[in-house]
Amino acid sequence: MKKPVPCDVVEKAARDILKERGVEISDIAQIVYDMQAKYVPNLSMEDCYESSDAVLSKREIQHAILVGVELDKLAEKNMLSEPLQSLVDTDEGLFGVDETIALGSVFGFGSIAVTTFGFLDKEKVGIIKTLDDKGKEDECHTFLDDLVASIASSASARLAHRLRDREENKRKEDIDAREDEELIG
Ligand SMILES: [Ca+2]
């Protein structure tokens, strides 16, 4: 019988692969900061970092990262079959699977996550722009730029909801419990 993969192995692999591809949690936190600063007075980078890190502990996003980045890496090495190789490597405009995979994991975080993802998909900011630019050269980040947008969007939504709860003085355990109930994975 095939053995299930322990979840800590999956989480570590997803976190490692982001780093390997040049994305630090602080880069994602910066996007979250830029997205939320106009709505939240006194927003701290620590809150943005904490929220980005928490999103990375969700299984659904870890799986999306592993699938997407694997395809980016294979395309970079010219190892996919044609025509998929060219579709991924050239980031063909009508190839939307990169966005679909990334979008799939923001739904659990509600409408703020979905609208933020739509915004980041159009206005590539921070590390998303860097990845997009590098992808036009020798590297391939067709999936990764959308995955980063997905993590940042989910983290923005999570943060917005938590800050409201904090404002209303809900106890930390209640906030954590509610999040666990609401989210998949
Ligand atoms: Ca893309």
TrEMBL record:
Signal peptide: none
Keywords: Hydrolase
Keyword Cytoplasm found: no
Pfam family, one: PgpA
Full protein name: Phosphatidylglycerophosphatase A
Lineage, opening ranks: Bacteria, Bacillati, Bacillota, Bacilli, Bacillales
Domain of life: Bacteria
GO molecular function: phosphatidylglycerophosphatase activity
Location of region: Disordered: 162-185
